[in-house]
Every structure is written in structure tokens, then in C-alpha cells.
Amino acid sequence: MKRRDFIKSAGLVAAGSALGAHGASAETMFHLTGEPDDGLNSIRLPIRALNPVVDKPVSVIIIGAGNRGKTYARYAEMFPEGMKVVGVSDILDHRLKYLSDKHGVAEDMRFGHFREVFASGKKLADAVVISTPDDRHYEPCMKALSLGYDVLLEKPVAQTEKECKAILAQAKKYGRIVAVCHVLRYAPYFLALREVLRSGAIGEIVSIQHMEPIQYAHMAHSYVRGNWRSSTETTPIILAKSCHDLDMLRWLINKPCKSIVADGGLHLFKAENAPEGAPMRCTDGCPHEATCPYSALDIYTRQKVHLGVFDLNGSKDTDLILQRLKDPAYSSYARCVYHCDNDQPDHYVAEMVFEGGETAAFSMEAFSPRGGRRTRVMGTIGFIEGDGTSFTVTDFRTRKQRVWNLKVSDIPEYKGSGHGGGDLALARDFIEAVAHQDPSRLSSTIDVSIESHVMGFAAERSRKTGRKEKVKV
Ligand SMILES: NC(=O)c1ccc[n+]([C@@H]2O[C@H](COP(=O)([O-])OP(=O)(O)OC[C@H]3O[C@@H](n4cnc5c(N)ncnc54)[C@H](O)[C@@H]3O)[C@@H](O)[C@H]2O)c1
Predict the structure, then answer these.
(1) Per-residue buried b or exposed e for 207-236, using 16+ beta carbons within 10 Å of the residue's own CB
(2) Strands 28-31, 43-45: pairing kind
(3) Does pLDDT of 467 surpass 70?
(4) Which of 369, 225, 229 is nearest to 283 (CA)?
(5) Of 13, 39, 84, 272, which residue is the least packed, with the fewest Cβ within 10 Å?
(6) Domains in the chain: ranges and CATH
(7) What is the DSSP letter of 154?
(8) Which of 61, 67, 111, 247 most suits a substitution to test ligand 1, by most atoms within 8 Å of the C-beta?
(9) Does the Cβ of 97 fall within 6 Å of ligand 1?
């Protein structure tokens, strides 16, 4: 689709600089649909093509060649002039080989455990991407900073507030850049929402309602059977899943959070709720398999979703998936959702008060048919309601409504960039920040990302104690 056509189909009018493949340094003006007769005429958005503005490629070692490691490595495939993967580390041989081969990584730059990357005590690249599991962020990040690497660090930053603050201090001590993967900050939808708020279109922000529907099958996959099922081995779900949302609320309101009170728990996915006769695994002839919405056979072999964990390299072959479900390396995904070693809440609410008295009500919900964050912003002269892809702005003075509905899938330059376009836009900004040694190109440096993590730890304390917690950064 040509640029002009996609903008037309998206119901938008663009002016100013082009969004085209070579418009990397441009910003783009968008008008919302509706009559631009008062206040809100246009939004200037830093939506830029994904190609980086650099003189030479930034060399990177990927630590953790799983789902997220591969996501950021893709940026090097798309833009070899900007990023080169010169090293890979993973404790799983097949993942190490797959990503290393894909990027032509030299034998002596293929590492197993991340400690091998740092064993020589020398800096082997410009930057590292840390995309290991949550409990393996702190150690490699501290070490990388001490050796002079800049770091692209997956969220959550670390498992405790103390470790998060230590990483911040280490980054300052060694004068390095740490970009935290709060990818939603780089997604056009959220950028547009923030710009509309900053334009004063709805007056002062008084309060926000924000909901994160996880979606029932995603919950079962990631937070009951999968990698993030244990709040102690990884991080509490308010960080593991919702640090994006706390960060978003802080970013939209643009003031520090002063206090937080939280509640919620694990309602369904526990042994006492197992239907009679349910075996330990869905693959063991469960009598309830055909009617259970959380059946592993249904999710993986019929719906064929969440297959990324099975190392299928794009295949959706049913027999291969069944084989993986029986393979001990992947078989936790075949477990009955009522017979897992999980403790993450399936419903979680938090109320926050910000510095100017603004309030935010957050709700994370497992039991929803689809994902897609829903947000309502209440302002003194207007209201915004959005669903993660489009939002409507209502002006109380004119009672007119305007709509933002630019679909990321319609922006050719953002094709294949997950998290509403945010994944690869973050990769671009990180590469530029490293190349120019300019952290201001990032909107999620460690300095600003720490705050939402402190909010998350305070929320979890409140959920466990029932007390309102002060948020002190
Ligand atoms: N920004 C986001 O929106 C987002 C989305 C999903 C996941 N994440 C975070 O990204 C991180 C990675 O998640 P993922 O989905 O890619 O997980 P994953 O399991 O797919 O990948 C992690 C990889 O790290 C490897 N690994 C484990 N220990 C290691 C070690 N000691 N040394 C080297 N490699 C090691 C594993 O073998 C695995 O291949 C997690 O912290 C997760 O919370 C962030």
C-alpha cells in the first residue's frame, strides 16, 4: 500500500515531513479525524522510519537468545548498516547455534552462560542486549556496565528494589547508557495519546482508569504453566506483566506517584479447583479436555497460539507440536492448569495518587477474551477513551469527538514490529543512542524507568499487607 493510500484508509491527514523509508530524522504531523475547529488541530509525533541514523554499525552481543533476544536481533537483519550481532550467549545449545548461525557469529564469540561473555575481562562489543529471564538481569547488567558496555535491558529491571537502584547507581558510576525495554513508550498509539494529553486538549488530567486484559489463554500459557508462573523465581506479576502499565500511567500523568494501594490474588488456577479426574497433563487423556478453555491441546494444537516457546522455527505442524508437548524440555506447557507450581494472581487492582492529587485506577485481568490495553482519561474539559489501537477524544465545550485510528499494521515501515510498533522503534533509538553516545534519544532510560519499578514493588507490598504504601524513589 502506498503511503498516501494507507493514510487515507486510516482516516488520517498527514502533513509535514514524510514517514518514508528515508525519513529517519523526520517527525510527522497527524490530524485526528473530525473537524479541527478548536484547540486540537494536529499532533506532532516522533513517528519515524525504523532505519537508524548512524555512521557505522553498532556491535552488539545478545545475551539470552530466546523470544526477546531474537526480536532485537531482527533489527540487525533489517538494518545491517545500523546494528551488527557479533556475539550470542545462551545456555541452550540449539538457541545459541540458531541465532549465531543466522548472524554469522564467529566461533569464539559464541558463549554459553552469560558469565563466559565477561570472563576475559575485556569489552568485546559496543553494547549488550540482556534478554535472559527476570532472575538473570541483575548480575550480567552490573558486570556489563563495569566493563564499559552500554546495555539494552529487558524489563523488569531486576527482582528487588535494591537491585534496581544498584543498576541505576552502576550506570551512573561508569557513565553508561541503560535502556529499559518499556516498549510501549515507543508505540505510535501511546505516543499519540501522550501528545494529545500534553496539548491540553482535555484540560488538566484529573484521573485515569487503565485496564490490562491479559487474555485467558495467554494467562494460562505464561503465568500458570510458563516462564512467569512463580512470583519468587521471576518477579511478581505487577512487575513481570504490568510494569509497562505503571510506567505508562506515570508517563501519561507526567508527575511522580506518591502512594499506592493494591489488592487481588489467585482465584482459579489451583489444585482445589481441578475438575474430578483431571490428570496432571492435558496430554494424558483428560476427560474434560474438550470442554476446558485452558486445555493445552486446544491452545497449542488447535488454536496454534503461543508457539514461540517450542523452537519450531516457524512451523505449525500439529505432530511436531504434540512431540514438543511430550518432550521434557517443553512439557511444562502440557500441564493441567490446576496442577502447576504457580502463584501469580489472576486478578490485580491498584489505586495510585500522583503528586498533583491525580488518581489512577489500574486493573489487570486474566479472564478476558482478548488483550489490548483499555484506557480512559478524565480531564477538566474533555475525555479520552482508547483500546490500544484507536482512541476517541471528546471535547465537553463543543461536544465534538475526534478519533486516532492509525493502525500500526498499515505503516509499512513498522511491519513486523511487535508491541504496537514499539519493539523495533526502541531498537532504533537504542542503536542511535549508543552510536552518538546520547541517552536523550531514549524515552526509557534507567533513570526514568526506576520509578515505575518502585511503584510495582510498593503495590506488591500493599497487596500482601493490606496497607497503603508510600512510593519513594
Ligand atoms: N519488553 C517486553 O514487553 C517483554 C516481553 C516479553 C518478555 N520480556 C522479558 O524479556 C526477558 C526474556 O523473555 P523471553 O520471552 O525472551 O524468554 P525466553 O525464555 O524466550 O528467552 C530467555 C533466554 O535466556 C536464556 N538463558 C537463561 N539463562 C541464561 C544464562 N545464564 N546465560 C545465557 N542465557 C541464558 C534461555 O535459555 C532462553 O533462551 C524476560 O525478563 C521477560 O520478562 C519483556
Answers:
(1) bbebbbbbbbbbbbbbbbbbbbbbbeebbb
(2) antiparallel
(3) yes
(4) 225
(5) 272
(6) 1-201+407-442 (3.40.50.720), 204-269+343-380+446-470 (3.30.360.10), 271-334 (no CATH)
(7) P
(8) 67
(9) no
